[in-house]
Specification:
By secondary structure, this protein is mainly alpha-helical. It has one domain: Orthogonal Bundle (Arc Repressor Mutant, subunit A), CATH 1.10.10.10. It is 54% helix and 7% strand. It has a three-stranded antiparallel β-sheet with strand order 1-3-2. Helix 2 packs across helix 4, helix 2 crosses helix 5 and helix 3 crosses helix 4. It is globular, with a radius of gyration of 22 Å.
Amino acid sequence: MPRRPPEEPPAPPTCRPSARPTAETLEGPLGRLYRIATLWKARLEPVLKAHGLTAAGFGVLVTLHRAGPGHRLTTGQLAALDLVTCSGMTIRADKLEQQGLIVRERDDDDRRIIHLRLTRAGAELVDRLLAHYRAAEEQLMATLDADAHRILTELAVTLERALHPDAPTTDHPTRP
């Protein structure tokens, strides 16, 4: 039986198939919001990385910073605000503590409760990074007029509350 010449190998796919949808495959406004959030995170990550942080670690620091005087919350409180498990928050806290950005403190009334508190170095780093964040946000939001900015803010708050009705509300100015 004569041998057939080998067939041409198939061309490699231009993109790897994925089991989960990507931002490019999602349609509608939520897909676009997902893509915007991904692009925004990618813009901020180099600055965070330069300071030895991840977006998740930065989120913990910012949440503690916003906790008011004393800058402290329990691991459980932080986990609930960040929508992660307590063990996930503990892993984040371990890394931040090793960097000297937070400390663990026992509760005075109930020694079983441990609070996480920003150190001075942690608070100073958050202040510097928030200044960068706000400048980047202001630059991006400058592409919108005042009405579009106000509408975007209102819609974002409405969608966030629909997805997480128990989340604490923060009042953000509609335009700096």
